[in-house]
Design brief:
Elements lengths: L2 H4 L3 H22 L3 H12 L15 H19 L3 H6 L1 H26 L4 H10 L5 H10 L4 H30 L4 H33 L9 H19 L4 H13 L6 H25 L3 H6 L2
Helix pairs in contact: 2-3, 2-13, 3-13, 4-11, 4-12, 4-13, 6-7, 6-9, 7-9, 8-9, 9-10, 9-12, 10-11, 10-12, 11-12, 11-13
Length: 303
């Protein structure tokens, strides 16, 4: 047992996850690799199956709260980065990717694991809903490295951000359907998904408008506190929406970011710079913690 393992604690686990996350992104940059590759490797290397320096189990229920906080910041920044005018020009392609594309991915994913691995419909359904998501944590770093035409970049970036809300809500509803003792859950799944999305969008539009209003008037928020105020309110939008309707917060915080990012504020540049740096920090920590929380033996046991 190493010195760090003997003195391991929840704060030390978070500290190691933060450091490993930034180390992974630095190494990936110099080796010209996608950041997620290095983060996956370091998550295993630092986790219980490796050096055992990152022990997510020590965080208990706090892990879910920490992940929620990080996701709120990441998706708010993702929403802010979307240009509404470009979205309108590529609206048809984006809508097809987020709706038809998501449905095709889910169905093909279900069929693949059912046929190849022989999984039952419950596990196949969960797998299908999980592979819907691409996410800004994967797409955005890749787009920064690849020279892609602007219209294509806009479509992929928008899909990466917006599909998170669709995929997360769909996966949550799928889990509820699988765990439900009644067959009615399958029939209600569609309306429930749409209802949660609409509620999240409504909360996000309202919350984003209020944040943008606060930032529009110079001096209303003390100078230097604008970015911190925005961050705190974005997290509040996320958690408040989740508190009212389960798993609607992802849609709410994404839309709030979209509203704020396309509003005229005197701190738009500072907001983007601050959010980009914070997002890089949280992406690294998030991947390391979540990868370390999954044991290799459990993965191999799936077949």
């Amino acid at each position: 047992m190493s010195f760090f393992e003997f003195h391991q604690s929840a704060p030390l686990t978070v500290a190691f996850a933060l450091a490993a996350g930034m180390l992974g992104q630095t190494v990936a940059h110099h080796l010209r690799l996608p950041g997620i590759v290095a983060l996956l490797v370091l998550g295993v290397a630092f986790g219980p199956d490796g050096a055992n320096l990152v022990q997510p189990a020590l965080l208990g229920d706090g892990l879910a709260s920490l992940v929620g906080f990080a996701v709120a910041v990441i998706l708010f920044e993702g929403g802010m980065s979307l240009d509404l005018r470009r979205l309108k020009r590529s609206g048809r392609a984006i809508r097809r990717l987020v709706t038809v594309g998501a449905l095709v991915s889910m169905v093909l994913g279900m069929i693949l694991v059912a046929v190849v691995l022989g999984w039952g419909w419950q596990r196949s359904l969960l797998f299908g809903t999980l592979v819907i998501v691409t996410g800004p944590t994967v797409v955005t770093p890749l787009l920064r490295r690849l020279k892609v035409k602007k219209p294509v970049s806009t479509v992929l970036e928008a899909e990466g951000v917006l599909i998170d809300a669709v995929g997360a809500i769909t996966a949550a509803v799928a889990l509820e359907v699988v765990l439900s003792p009644s067959d009615q859950g399958v029939l209600l799944a569609g309306p429930v998904i749409v209802g949660r999305l609409f509620f999240g969008v409504a909360v996000g539009m309202l919350g984003g408008a209020l944040i943008a209003l606060l930032l529009r008037f110079r001096g209303l928020v003390p100078e230097g506190l604008e970015t911190v105020m925005t961050l705190s309110l974005a997290v509040l939008v996320f958690e408040a929406s989740n508190a009212v309707v389960h798993e609607s917060g992802i849609a709410a915080v994404t839309v709030a970011g979209l509203v704020v990012g396309n509003s005229r504020t005197h701190v738009a540049r500072e907001l983007r710079e601050f959010k980009e740096q914070l997002t890089a920090l949280f992406i690294g920590m998030l991947f390391v913690l979540l990868v370390a929380d999954v044991r290799l033996a459990d993965i191999f046991a799936l077949g």
